[in-house]
Design a protein that fits this description.
Number of helices of chain B: 3
CATH topology of chain A: Rossmann fold
CATH class of chain A: Alpha Beta
CATH architecture of chain A: 3-Layer(aba) Sandwich
Order of helices and strands of chain B: HHEEH
Structural class of chain B: mainly alpha
Number of strands of chain B: 2
Oligomer: heterodimer
Largest interface: A-B, 40 and 60 residues
Strand order of the largest sheet of chain B: 1-2
Number of strands of chain A: 4
CATH topology of one domain in chain B: Helix Hairpins
CATH architecture of one domain in chain B: Orthogonal Bundle
Distance between the termini of chain A: 40 Å
Structural class of chain A: alpha/beta
Helix content of chain B: over 70%
Order of helices and strands of chain A: EHEHEHHEH
Largest sheet of chain A: 4 strands, parallel
Shape of chain A: globular
Strand content of chain B: 5-15%
Strand order of the largest sheet of chain A: 2-1-3-4
Helix content of chain A: 40-55%
Radius of gyration of chain B: 36 Å
Largest sheet of chain B: 2 strands, antiparallel
Strand content of chain A: 15-25%
Chain lengths: 103, 216
């Protein structure tokens, strides 16, 4: 059985605790990096991470993009939507098609 | 195109012809794979886009409630309310093979039978906005799991499409023309050798005839 985790600042992720997801309140780049590594090898299949937190560790997230598990998904933080999550999709389209056909 | 560095012999020629045949077949197969991957990718990316928009709106709504809850309640009280969850999510992970790309499939399982049983606190000391936030998150959660699944699939397929496209291009524009050119070169060389043998034989024959019979 796999689990699901949420990483981000306290205000954005606290709500997910009620749903029964493992919540990690981290805002420090190094600690998030280590945390993602630990979660990836520790039975977590899905990691939701807030956009500002993801921006700190974009390299680490890219590393996991080509492996089947875990699936790292960007979600908007409490400050609002930065559009970073959508950008990941646009990048995928660009990679596959050669040009971003949705713009 | 560059000619391959091989000896112009019959053996090399046969070898190259075989290689050309398999390169052509590989090219056709990979091209079909690329087209099919692309077709599936386009359908999937459309679904992912609309799903992501829905999830983002849902979470933003929850965040709005959360922001209000955070302002009317004390931070500590808010944290305490959410400290011990009633619900627990476990994921069953399966794998699906789409054109040799392994994509994950998630199935969320909740600890209690009622998955909407998410309020881990009493109603008396918490703001109603917290209820709103938790219920908004609860209703968007199944979509989030589906998004995790399909977004991963999109990323993995984009990778595979890029790889396949490179292979197709390498075969189409480098390997196949190279083989063709080398085969042409060897054929030319061999027939040239043959002609040169024939002419020298004719010459020798002439010379021998001349010597023995004084024949012109």
């Amino acid at each position: 059985m796999y689990k699901a985790a949420v990483i981000g600042d306290s205000a954005s992720v606290s709500g997910f605790a009620a749903l029964g997801l493992s919540v990690f309140r981290e805002t420090d780049a190094d600690r998030i990096k280590k945390l993602i590594g630990k979660l990836a090898s520790g039975g977590y299949a899905v990691i939701f991470i807030t956009e500002p937190a993801a921006a700190l560790v974009s390299e680490t997230i890219k590393k996991y993009n080509s492996s089947t598990l875990p699936s790292i998904v960007l979600i908007p933080a409490i400050e609002g939507n930065t559009g970073e999550g959508m950008r990941t999709l646009h990048e995928a389209v660009e990679k596959a098609v050669g040009t971003d056909i949705f713009n | 195109m560059a000619r391959l560095n091989v000896n112009p012999t019959r053996m090399e020629l046969t070898k190259l012809k075989k290689k050309l045949v398999s390169a052509r077949r590989g090219h056709k197969l990979l091209k079909d794979k690329r087209d099919e991957l692309m077709r599936q990718f386009m359908g999937m990316i459309k679904e992912t886009r609309s799903l992501r928009t829905e999830v983002e709106t849902g979470i933003s709504e929850a965040n709005r409630y959360m922001a209000v809850a955070g302002s009317v309640m004390q931070r500590e009280a808010l944290e305490t309310a959410l400290m011990i969850p009633k619900q627990e999510v476990e994921l069953e992970v399966g794998e699906k093979n789409v054109m040799s790309v392994l994509i994950p499939e998630f199935q969320a399982k909740f600890r209690t039978d009622d998955e909407n049983d998410v309020y881990s606190y009493g109603m008396a000391f918490t703001s109603i906005d917290l209820d709103g936030a938790v219920s908004a998150l609860g209703s968007v959660f199944p979509k989030m799991i589906r998004l995790a699944e399909i977004e991963k699939a999109c990323l993995l397929m984009a990778d595979e499409i890029e790889k396949t496209r490179r292979r197709v291009n390498a075969l189409e524009h480098i390997m196949i023309p190279d083989y063709e050119e080398t085969i042409r070169y060897i054929t030319m060389k061999l027939s040239e050798n043959e002609r040169s043998t024939t002419t020298s034989l004719m010459k020798v024959k002439d010379m021998v005839l001349k010597q023995s019979h004084n024949f012109t």
